[in-house]
TrEMBL record:
This is YaiO family outer membrane beta-barrel protein. It comes from the Bacteria. The lineage of its organism: Bacteria, Pseudomonadati, Bacteroidota, Sphingobacteriia, Sphingobacteriales. It comes from Sphingobacterium alkalisoli. Gene3D superfamilies: Tetratricopeptide repeat domain. The gene is yaiO. It holds the Pfam family YaiO. InterPro entries: Beta-barrel_YaiO, TPR-like_helical_dom_sf. Residues 179-351 form the YaiO beta-barrel domain. NCBIfam families: OMP_YaiO_dom.
Length: 413
């Protein structure tokens, strides 16, 4: 009977004992419990309750108030979150985390003007804040204010060239900010065995940024096999959304053999989470017959590196020919300043020697390795130089070496 009475007494007094224990905790200890419930258990309701208890003990504890505002934001209690942040504004709080939390609330609730005003006040006080600069970039990129977004992301990359998310963003932003671009490239190819004459290709291009994506016009002049040819190309990168965009390309030439008679290509690109990007598509060349190739690639930004793996698969009646290439880029500054390396096997339709595909040499063994260096001057003058070495089986059991060198210049305005 005594045991039953003791059990009843413990059960009855337990909630009061627990409340007494919580009353004995400091504001910091209750704050830690609130964070545990929010981040480990995703229990925002309990985290809100604990944060309020902590503020009763320490009403001037700024970090807890900011955290409570975030909890209301995550719980979709927008009015409550705004009340917390407005109170902090009236208290003239200048913490970096406050501006991040308040601007994020307005950004996520489709108030870009308010979000921009808040984040600008934060940057004025915390000029080198990478988090605030990233948020400012996202706010303006999402609302098509591309020039503002470019300035903030460039500032961020000056502070931290290894910032992975900024590195992925700048590529997309610059598709809209460089309204016009004129370019020229020169490619020189030397064979030690396969062909007697060197090849020379000069390309002139004009790129125009439009509200739906970039459009590129290109004219290529080539001297191959001691003969001349001209090719005209049109490429476009229409954007379907902030995540998906297309590559659409076509080319035509009367000089079959030097260039394909015509070519087409389409790819769907996706900007994936965690700074990944993916692509699936096809390329088609027509010389005296159609050559169809299907391509897929996966890319990843990590700090100031970009990794990419690509394959081309060419079905035929006998087998499926395969081409693989891995690329690594090391970015030194902005989107146009990097050192790159490539290694792969097989021929691809993107190369200046794609006319060799017409002779079915893509079924033979090819190994390639190359490097490129791109750099910008005053951000509007873009220079590039690259070199690739090929060891190609151009006839069964006969191999030859080839060296490609390409230099280029682009002026944006």
């Amino acid at each position: 009977m005594k045991n039953l009475f003791y059990l009843f007494l413990c059960t009855f007094l337990s909630p009061f004992t627990s409340m007494s224990q919580e009353d004995d905790l400091s504001a910091d200890e209750i704050f830690l419990r609130a964070r545990h419930h929010a981040f480990e258990q995703k229990d925002y309701s309990e985290a809100i309750k604990l944060s309020k208890q902590a503020l009763q003990k320490a009403p001037e504890y700024i970090d807890i108030s900011i955290f409570l505002g975030r909890l209301y934001t995550w719980s979709d209690y927008i009015d409550s979150a705004r009340m917390v942040f407005t109170d902090l504004v009236n208290r003239k709080v200048e913490d970096e985390d406050f501006f991040l939390a308040y601007a994020s609330l307005e950004f996520w609730n489709d108030q870009p003007a308010n979000a921009n005003a808040i984040v600008d006040k934060g940057i004025a006080l915390h000029y080198d804040s990478q988090d605030l600069l990233l948020l400012k970039t996202k706010i303006n990129y999402s609302n098509n204010n591309y020039e503002i977004a470019e300035r903030s992301v460039n500032r961020l990359l000056e502070l931290n060239p290894k910032h992975t998310e900024a590195r992925a963003l700048i590529k997309n932003i610059q598709e809209f900010t460089a309204k016009n671009a004129l370019g020229i490239t020169y490619n020189f190819t030397h064979f030690d065995k396969q062909f007697e004459d060197d090849w020379h290709i000069v390309g002139l291009s004009y790129r125009r940024a439009t509200p739906i994506g970039s459009v590129i016009f290109r004219t290529n002049y080539a001297n191959k096999f001691a003969d001349n040819g001209v090719q005209f190309e049109l490429e476009a990168y229409p954007r379907l959304s902030k995540i998906f965009y297309l590559y659409v390309g076509a080319g035509y030439s009367d000089n079959v053999g030097i260039f394909p008679n015509y070519r087409t290509g389409v790819s769907l690109y996706a900007n994936l989470p965690q700074s990944f990007e993916g692509e699936v598509g096809y390329r088609q060349l027509y010389f005296n017959d159609h050559i169809w190739m299907y391509t897929a690639s996966i890319g990843k930004y990590y700090q100031n590196y970009w990794f990419n793996f690509r394959t081309y698969l060419t079905p035929s009646q006998e087998n499926i020919s395969q081409s693989y290439a891995g690329t690594v880029r090391y970015y030194t500054k902005g989107a146009n300043d990097y050192l790159g390396f490539i290694i792969g096997t097989g021929l691809s339709p993107e190369e200046n020697r794609n006319n060799l595909l017409d002779n079915a040499s893509y079924k033979l063994k090819t190994f390639k390795v190359g490097a490129e260096y791109n750099f910008s001057v005053n951000r509007t003058n873009l220079f590039s130089i690259s070199s690739t070495y090929y060891n190609q089986e151009y006839r069964p059991n006969e191999k030859g070496n080839q060296i490609d060198i390409t230099v280029g210049y682009i002026k944006t305005f």
